Amino acid sequence: xxxxxxxxxxxxxxxxxxxxxxxxxxxxxxxxxxxxxxxxxxxxxxxxxxxxxxxxxxxxxxxxxxxxxxxxxxxxxxxxxxxxxxxxxxxxxxxxxxxxxxxxxxxxxxxxxxxx
Amino acid sequence: xxxxxxxxxxxxxxxxxxxxxxxxxxxxxxxxxxxxxxxxxxxxxxxxxxxxxxxxxxxxxxxxxxxxxxxxxxxxxxxxxxxxxxxxxxxxxxxxxxxxxxxxxxxxxxxxxx
Lengths: 116, 114
Hints:
The structure holds two protein chains of two kinds.
Chain A: E1 4-7, E2 10-13, E3 18-25, E4 31-37, E5 44-50, E6 53-57, E7 64-70, E8 73-79, E9 87-94, E10 106-107, E11 111-115
Parallel strand pairs in A: 2-11
Antiparallel strand pairs in A: 1-3, 3-8, 4-5, 4-9, 5-6, 7-8, 9-10, 9-11
Chain B: E1 3-5, E2 10-14, E3 19-21, E4 24-26, E5 31-38, E6 44-50, E7 56-58, E8 64-68, E9 73-78, E10 87-95, E11 98-104, E12 108-113
Parallel strand pairs in B: 2-12
Antiparallel strand pairs in B: 1-4, 3-9, 5-6, 5-10, 7-8, 8-9, 10-11, 10-12
């Protein structure tokens, strides 16, 4: 596998279900991100992890729970979602330098989530 | 605060014609600017980026963009469109010292007709 992979690619869940999205990066990066892409809206940054530590939570509802067990893996745990949470969820990774700045973000193919 | 405006949610061109996708930005600090492309059912792929070096940036697939500070613009061009260029294109801006917080535009869907 190369680049950034995401599983599953498609997910349909009910409002009472619990599911998880998985992201894995094979680029040796140390920063990972979750984005939400809804129709007719700009990409929304949800969470940022640097060296496995969460450094950004962009006012995301608690029904979305991220987990970053190591620099290569990122999960998004979902529970009691609403129909308006249906969207494409994109994962990205980048390399944070010693000066604190980060380089280009590389994106995975996304998980298309439908909440019934 | 930073923001990006992409003029035109849809652009249609004939194969072989010039492609021009517009992006204007707002930033209180020196920006980094990016163009990403998204093909159907795929994630975002970096086309090119401006990081305060040369103002004319060349990217993949024959695309280029010019940073014009006086016009706060970073328009994307390609001299001759190809059918395979049909996709959605996103302009994004970040602070030059921290690209964690990419601010994206709403995207422009490019259609290419034979």
